[in-house]
Each structure stands twice: as C-alpha cells, then as structure tokens.
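Memo to structure team: turn this sequence into structure tokens by end of day. - J.P.
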Amino acid sequence: MNRQRSFIGFIVAGAIALLVIAIAGFYWFFAKSPANLIGSTSQPGAAIFVSKLSPVMVSLLANPDRLQALEQEEELSKLKTSLFAKSAIDYKQDIQPWLGDEITLAITTLDIDRDLENGQQPGYLLALATKQPEKSREFVELLFSKRALAGANLAVEQYKGVKLIYDNSQPEQNLLAGAVVGEGFVLFANDPKVLRDAINNVQAPDLNLTSSPEYQKATKELPKGGLAVAFLNLPIVAKWQGLELPEQLYNSQIISLALNPKGLLAETTFLTSSQIVPPSPPLSKPVGALQYIPASAGLAISGSNLSNLGNSDLAKLWRQATATIYGSEEDVVSRLAKPLADIQKRWGINFPDDIFSWVQGEYAIALLPQKEQTTPHWIFVVEKSEGVEQGVARLDAIASSNGLSINPLTIDKQKISAWTELTTATKKTNVKEGASFSIETKVRGLHTTLGNYEIFTSDLETMDEILTTKDNSIIDNPNFRDSIAAIPLPNQGYIYLDWTKSQNLLERQVPILKLVEVLGKPFFNNLRSLTVSSYGTDTRSLKGGVFFKLNNS
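Reply from structure team:
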C-alpha cells in the first residue's frame, strides 16, 4: 500500500503543479494574447491508453510553457524546481525540449491486482505527449538511471514491441514504471501492469475509452479550442469511493475549460439514458425580479418556478453529487449554505414545503455580506402568481406561531409588514434604586409588494436600500452584465457570486477554501466573480457552465 501512496504523492504534486501553472497563465495570457491560448486539439489523444472502465481522466491540452508568462515573478520556476527536486531532474534541460501539447492523468483501474485480500490499489497513468521521441527516450533512460544510482533495482521488459522500464522494488518502496509508446507519448505508471494494460488498450480498441458510447457522446459536447478537459465515469467513481447511491441518474460527466473574451468558462455536461425533466421552461432573458436586488449583493440566485425543483433532474443531480462528495445532502447544505440553514432552524420552516411549493413565477434570492457581522442580510423576491397570496399568509402564520407580531410600517411612503419581537433590556443603576428595564422592538423580517413582486428582507436597512436605490440594482452592475453575457441563452437562470464581497463569508463557512486559494493564488487574487447556470436543449443530458470573470477583463 505504501508504494501506491508514494506514487499518489508524485502524481498529486504533478497535477497540482500543472493546475497552478495553468491557472496562473490564464490570467496573464487573457490580458496579453487570448487568441493564442487555445488547446491544440479538442480531445485528449491519450484516451486510447485508458480503459473504458476508468473512473477519471484529466487532460491539459496545451504545452505548460505557453502558460509560463508569470516566469518573471519566478513563481513557476520555483514550482518546477520543487516538483522535480527529489528526482534530480531539470525541467528546462530534460523535459522542456520534447514535451508536447498534452498531459493526461488517469485512474485506470480501481484495483491493480484485483485481489480484495490486500486492499484496493488503484492504477495511475500519466501520459505526456512528445514532439521529439528520441529526446523523450533519453529522458526516460536518464530518469531511471538516476533512480538506480539512488538504490532502486531496475527491470527492463519488452512487451508487444514496447520497452518497459520499472523499479523491481519491494512493495513498501516507491515503485515507478515508464515507457515511450510509438512516436507520440511517454507513459508513467505506479505499476508495470498498468503500462501493459495501456498498451493492450491501444492494440484492442474496443477496450479503450474512445470506444465507449458514453465517452463518444460526451466529447461531442466539448467546445473547440478548450485548454483542459476531464471525463468522469460516475457509477465507477461512486464505487471507488465505496458508496451505494440511493439514486443513480447520471452515468458520466465531461468538463472543459476555455477562454472567453471576458474571462474563463468551465462547461460541464452530465449524460443519462433517461429523459431529462427541466425544473422550469428556459428563460430567454434575466428575470425581472433582479431589479430589486441591490448592486451590493455578494450572492444572487435567480430563475423561475421553484415549485417543481424537488422533482427535477437538476435536484436529482444535486442529490447524487452531494451523496458522492459529502455522503448526504444535509451535510453539504450545512457546510455551504449555513445562512439559509440557520433561517430554516430559527423559523422552524421547511423551504420546499413552506416556500418553494408556491413559487411558480420568477424569483430572486440574494445575500448581502456585512463587514461588521458574520451573518449576511438576505432578500427574497417572488413574482405574483397563483398561490403567492396564500404563501405569504402562511409565512405570516409561521411568524405568529414563533411568537412574533405582524405590524404595519411605512418607509418612503411604502407600506410594509414587519415581523417583530419585543425584548427587554436591563440597565443597572445604584443599589438603592435597583435595575431599570426598557422594552425594545426587534425586526426579524419584513415583506412588501412592489409592482408585480412580493419582496421579503431580513432587516429594515436592506428594505430601505431596495426602496431608495431603485436605479442601483444588480442588473445595472457592469460586472454582473458582463458575467451573464458569457452564459448561453436560453438558460435556467443564474447563480452569481461576487468574490470580492463574499470571500470572507465563504472562508468562514468553508475553511478548506483557504487551502484552495493558496494553491491557486494568482487566479484567486484576480478573481472578480463567478456565475453558474444550466442550459442546453438535449433531453438526454444536463449541460451547464461556470464563468469566472477576472479583474482585468
């Protein structure tokens, strides 16, 4: 098992390095020469080495040196030096001359020897495209000769015309196997059996990933000129994680990264053999409810018809994904949507039953982070439709059952209903006079009608901002307009996150995010916002994208 962990460390370090190189380069190249930063091919050529039963394959479709524009800051030089320090390999001298335009990493099998007695030992394959086969052969020889000098026992084997070199080491040592296959690729693996299987996959095409109908369908969704792509076989990913999913709707997923004139677009497609049920008819333009969301919002979610959300395939995807990653949907809600979870707990409500069920028209939800507070203010806007009046009355009844009073207020001549709570405050005086008490009224929520919309807010300040800054809504924000312009129409609405306003809030809710920021520092330092949406018309797939807007765009 140790040899697997050791090679995993090597692979993970390499993958992180490539990711950081790519992310760092994205920012610089976007400002300088975006037209030149495109993938050399739309599909990874190394897929011929990967089994159709592989759970995951990730590919960078551009030479890393095209992304090294931040070399002047020495960040990438340090990264490359640290990555190859233990192997005494010099990237510039030993790898750069022959490295081509593709780097692919794949988990080829869940268990190399298929022996449950000794535990699960995944097979890892790293494929590097080569533009100078002889130079790459020299590199493989150099790498293993240095490992031999360091004490490793080497073995050389001819397998179906391919020369394999690997450590004939004990299981507890760092095992590595390598080969140059044909004129196109250098392969590394954590076991020679992984290399033999890769060669078999090429010579028996029905075994490799390119012969998979799921993969063929998924690659048709890839945009031209993408910089990176990942393919996931979802049932096998779940098996790899030791999970038995209660609901397995989607069979595979493909993800691509491509530059957009305004930033970076990550598109993903989930494929299924079932008929897709969209949560609502697609929207040809942003919903009107957004006009009541202030430009100061850190998070805004908009769309239409929440009443069918729980039965939609989007909801089924959510349940499948959260079960795979976190083990339960409840856990991910408590981690990533704590403010909303707190509202449910405090009010004793259930969002699907008490709110979503009567929202059949447009809606918009927003969080407004407050520097001095850990809990953000919130806004909920819903279009008037059948059932809304009864829904509002139901919320009033819930507020009353929680001991709140429903009181009328007026702000800027606008009539408002406020959910208020009376509390006592104690002020200590001298001993003779004793303590004095005062009664305070705390507002726990408000709602009012504007035009064809019912608006709910958490506090008076937020309601006042909506009423008094009507010409400063989020749809007037140039950053928001640029971000949604990058998302294809029609779509199911938007999730918009202003990173600069929400960063502190997100870091408190998701502590691991700080580690991600460190790994991708050049990217996160220049991230302005991200926008998520679902779109596409294929009834057998669910397609969506995440658009990252950068500060210089």
